[in-house]
Amino acid sequence: MGVSKNKNIYSLIILGVLIVIYFLLSFDGCDHSNIGFNKSTEETTSKRNQRDHREAAFRHQRIYYTKHAACRMDCRSIDESEVKEILKDGEINYSKSDMKSKPCPKYAVEGITHDGQHVRIIVGNCSSQASIVTVIDLENEVECDCN
Predict the structure, then answer these.
(1) Is residue 66 one of the residues assigned to a domain?
(2) Residue 22, φ and ψ in degrees, nearest 5
(3) pLDDT of 34 over the 70 cut
(4) CA distances, 1 to each of 7, 13, 14, 15, 35 (Å)
(5) Residue 4 lies inside a defined structural domain of this protein
(6) Is the distance from CB of 65 to CB of 98 less than 8 angstroms?
(7) What is d(CA 117, CA 115) in angstroms, rounded to the nearest whole number?
(8) Which of 17, 50, 107, 131 is most buried, taking the most CB atoms under 10 A from its CB?
């Protein structure tokens, strides 16, 4: 009878393994373990889009040029049309930006102008205007006396 008991135990183990394999194979193939993560990702994406929209507000505001920015633009041969195109199409470089700056957060917007200059524009994102703080040519070192 000992051999018969062992056969029953092995049969139960084999049956259990087959049931587990059946459930694993019949699962619909989707990884449901991250359902909460997907919702969280959607919320994070939504919040990021809202933040990007707020931050990009400077792209559509009236532009004010500080005296320093106007001087830097002049000595680096960067005109207002180039500033406008970078503000419109450039990428925000968050590592060079200062979102905690007072009275307005400052963003470093970078891009290539229509005449091929690689520039960074520091813009204050104020409520009623985009305040151009400075304009930098990232490839050419130009001496400016803008005190």
Answers:
(1) yes
(2) -60, -50
(3) no
(4) 10, 19, 20, 21, 51
(5) no
(6) no
(7) 6
(8) 107
Look at the chain and report how many structural domains it folds into.
1
pLDDT at 30: 46
pLDDT at 48: 52
pLDDT, tens digit (0-9, with 9 covering 90-100), for 104-143? 889 999 999 999 999 999 998 877 888 899 999 999 888 8
Q: Is the dihedral of CA 47, 97, 104, 123 positive or negative?
A: negative
Domain containing 79 — which CATH number? 3.30.2310
CA dist., res. 4 & res. 35, Å (int): 47
> DSSP states of 97-109 as a string?
-BTT-SSS-EEEE
Residue 112 class from Cβ within 10 Å (0-12 exposed, 13-18 middle, 19+ buried)? middle
Helix, strand, or coil (residue 82): helix
Lowest mean pLDDT among 2-6, 47-51, 128-132, 143-147: 47-51
Higher pLDDT, 83 or 128: 83
